[in-house]
Write a structure and sequence with these properties.
Blueprint: E1 4-6, E2 12-14, H1 21-30, E3 38-42, E4 55-59, H2 60-72
Antiparallel strand pairs: 1-2, 3-4
Bound molecules: zinc ion.
């Protein structure tokens, strides 16, 4: 089991490195380090759910659009 704490934004971070757990998990999933402009979206919007199926890597701009759309209508994924 990984050892983490919740940061002030509500995201789990590793106790030793301080790295965000969901970003680390996403990097394992795609097999390379994330770029600075890439964000990891939580499909179910639960910040503490870093399971593979809940994480989606996307660009910062697409992510912003996604959330803007979510406010207006139900997103199907
Ligand atoms: Zn998101």
């Amino acid at each position: 089991m990984v050892s983490w704490f919740k940061d002030k934004n509500g995201y789990p971070r590793f106790k030793d490195s301080g790295k965000l757990v969901h970003r680390w998990k996403a990097e394992k999933k795609i097999g390379r380090p994330l770029k600075s402009w890439e964000v990891v979206h939580h499909r179910n919007e639960k910040k503490t759910d870093y399971s593979d199926k809940n994480l989606a890597v996307m660009s910062r701009s697409f992510h912003a659009k996604l959330h803007a759309n979510k406010r207006n209508r139900k997103w199907s994924w």
